[in-house]
Amino acid sequence: MLEIKGLAVKLEEEDKQILKGVDLSVEAGKVHAIMGPNGSGKSTLSYVLSGRDGYEVTGGSASLEGEDLLEMDPEERAAAGLFLAFQYPVEIPGVGNMTFLRTALNAQRKARGEEEMSAGDFLKLIRAKAKDLKIDADMLKRPVNVGFSGGEKKRNEILQMAMLEPKMCILDETDSGLDVDAMKLVSEGVNALRSEGRGFLVITHYQRLLDHIKPDVVHIMADGRIVKTGGPELALEVEKNGYADILAEVA
Amino acid sequence: MAAPAAKMDLTEARIATLSMPEGAAWATDARNAALARVREMGLPTRRDEYWRYTDPATLTQASAPRAAIFDDRDEPPVFGDIDKLNIVFVDGVFSPEKSDPLEMAGLEIERLSDVLSTDIHWAKDLYGVRETAGQDPVARPLAALNTAFATDGVVIRATGKAERPVCFIYLHRDETSDATLHHLVKVETGAEVTILEIGPAAARFNKCMEIDVADGAAFHHVRAQGRDHERRAATHMFARVGADALYKSFTLTANGVMTRNEHVIEIVGDNASAHVAGAALGDGASAPFHHDDTVFITHDALNGESRQVYKKVLRNGAEGVFQGKILVKEGAQKTDGYQISQSLLLDEDSSFQAKPELEIYADDVACSHGSTTGAIDEEALFYLRSRGVPTEIATDLLVIAFLAEAIDEIESEALREDIIARLMHWLERRRQG
Ligand SMILES: Nc1ncnc2c1ncn2[C@@H]1O[C@H](COP(=O)(O)OP(=O)(O)OP(=O)(O)O)[C@@H](O)[C@H]1O
Ligand SMILES: [Mg+2]
Hints:
The complex is a heterodimer. In chain A, about 40% of the residues lie in helices and about 30% in strands. Chain A is α/β, with parallel strands linked by helices. In chain A, the strands form 3 sheets. Chain A has a 6-stranded mixed β-sheet, with helices on both faces. Chain B is α/β, with parallel strands linked by helices. The termini of chain B are far apart. The structure holds adenosine-5'-triphosphate and magnesium ion (MG).
């Protein structure tokens, strides 16, 4: 599904190499987790995959179902099925949550040559999905993420994901800022989307989230590279011993 | 002080193209007095401090520069779904055939030329009177020129709560038309009226509206200026606001090679409010765009509240100007004056000049003003795009969001929604090219 090969990325404005050859492939139906120390490049990887400005790809490739992601505009990547749940969701004063989501959904459908969803169907769908995530009607009416608490913002990301039904979901620290109950809600939301045709890349610092969303594969990222890959037990090891042993081992 | 010779020449050249309509003695006196004011002040030039950011040359030159007529491709008109009384002008001439009968409960509606030919009329106390008062401390010669030579207009007296809005529809049919319209609106104690204005009016349009809002009365004004790229307009709204009264005005401007919209508002009664707002969408791609909002609000009573909210979105070399002043006179205690002017520049070719001013002679007031110029929020843009919203649509969503604070100043929900719908339609049409 998602194939990343030797991806090397530097900042556009500065001579700073952040990703130094990332190799990673996520198969359809699988959940991969990425853990790694602060500043190792996890968010950078997710931003580069979703097409944010400010980075220069100096080597390697990234593709989604065989299509070259790096050649596409962010909106094309979204229409192709890529979704990033942001580590820091953006507040957009003046743009209503509903308007935003409906515009996004229909733009994606249009780009894929599908029929637009009617206002009525959209409303029904969003109400049902919002209910599952305990997002109340009032939040839907408000401007995108404005005045949302940290946890509400994260739940809103998952709502967007549930509405857009992407093929490849990248979740960047969706668990940070969530209370125990919200963590369960969000995990249930993610688990509900797990399916054969869909891949997940879950960036997290904590085993807690992985207790709910059971990963098939766990990667450790350090200094711009995937330095170790293993099964769920790798996350438990990190939880117990931190990164020191792993980093020493691969050094 | 007499104006310099060049200014005098320019002024006389303009006057020479106009002829003063006949009327009742009082009206002719008012017109002659206005003409004397014009000669005294001279028409504006770029040298005048008040015209520093806007070159008035094409507004003052003897004849109107030609303006191509905009093809709206039969799109639904602004306020099309609003139940209203339509008063139509074609190139600045009232059209009885195209207009509704001038009748509505709570309102007396007359044609300006009829009023100015009537020997005894209340309009004597308003025509040119607010305009004259508004000449101090800053000269507004184009308004005096209007009083002297206005050829048409509407005179409205509201005695109760008008059941629906009155809409002035200004059609532009002749590429070289030069229109001078003057309206009077008197809102009696406790009465309420909503005036709507739409359309370009002419290749060049000089419009003056004098408004008297009596105690406890409310005046609402919502305007969508014509989208003809090459049209030019100089408009003045002169208002006097009584105790517990409300004056509210909003203007949407999209396109226009030259627009200068002035508001001159005097709050004379206690506990009164005056809110003026504007949303402008300027794109210099098919013709230059220059838009100037100039506002002067005087507080001369207790506990007054005023707001100026101006937002401009500019691209492809579009130019925006805001000159806004709050003058709080001695004794106008507890005045609450708010002023914000912001522009969103979508590229580096566009520009915004702002001159916010406060002049305060009372010690117990709360006044604030702010002006900002900024680019599109790249973070927000990326967030929208990452969800599949194409760049152009994402930009337009952010444009509407940016203008929202000004549009929110419209009190009527129906009118507000109509304006937003129009705006979205125009943006969509622009995207489609
Ligand atoms: N725009 C930028 N300007 C300067 N430095 C940047 C920029 N973006 C990323 N970096 C740097 O690149 C490195 C990787 O950052 P990134 O956000 O990808 O780390 P991360 O693994 O997501 O960390 P965390 O676990 O704290 O979220 C950090 O050292 C960061 O400071
Ligand atoms: Mg991060």
